[in-house]
Amino acid sequence: MATHRSAYRTLLTLNVSLNTKKLLQLPGGTIFASYEGLWGQNGNTTQVGSLQGYDALDAPPFSALYQLYYNQLLAGGDVEIRIGRQDTGDFFGEPPDAQAFINPSPTTIPTIIGSAYYPNASPGVVTLLNPNGPLTFKFGAYYFDRLHPSALDQTLNTLEPTGQPVGTFLIAEGDYSWQVADGMPGVFALGGSWRTGQLSTLGGSIQSGGGSVYAYVDQTLWADAGRSVAAYDIVSGGDRQVANNGIDFSSLGGLTATGLMPTRPGDVLGLGYNWVHISLQAGLPKPYELNFEAFYQFNFPHGISIQPDIQYFVNDGGGIHPDALVATVRIGLSF
Length: 335
Prior knowledge:
The protein is mainly beta. It has a single domain (9-333), classed as Carbohydrate-selective porin OprB (Porin, Beta Barrel). The protein is 5% helix and 54% strand. It has a 15-stranded antiparallel sheet with strand order 1-2-3-4-5-6-7-8-9-10-11-12-13-14-15. It is globular.
């Protein structure tokens, strides 16, 4: 891997949402479409070599009609169904206080195999039961075929990863939410996923399907006048034979603090760790990779944010590469 070098990337997202009650006199429905375009270098591929990656935006450059779905609330809002091309991360495996971290592990669980997380949104059906209640059940099935892209994909999506057999990505999750005190929510989630199809193993053979399980807890520890401190922790395990990037177990955690500076109530400070165990089948020099991350997100009016971030990798790439120090500045603009 290269050292003392830089990489840049730009992600553009354009969203359109239509309320079907106003448009078609159909209450409870939403038609949603989004375009995403990513340009620039994948710094992890050319410079860092982490099994986890260091930036959740990293992917081959692409231009895509990323999501296109219909969302419908039924039974007075107790049932929600979404049909169409969509991203798994909209509903599954997403601790609320992990979202600001740049490393992909907290928001794209490392042990999940062949998922429809960014950048691989896929056609699917998702059902939520009691979506606004303390106990919520979620079920998703996504068609995942990148060897035979649809005509729509061929026309509008330039990102078509190779080496993925025909199959379906299935995922289910149960969430239980609570409130310790005013402004101090918490949530516990337990989920599992399964990838169908004939999958290549780390040993070079073929295996039918592979799965993963995960759990997370996210809790606001302190809140006062718009300021807060929250923590999360995620554990997951996956198939050792077809492990994603060789990762068969992970433990991820972080702490975020909002509004600690009185003059900057919207800013966020984050500290986190991401530890992943590497399957013996991968044959790498070290059995784990460990990442530490710290960031400070400056939030300004008009949807502008600037986020300096620093990460340190131990046993980078499972010991293939030297330990790595990575500094990132992410600039966001929402309008």
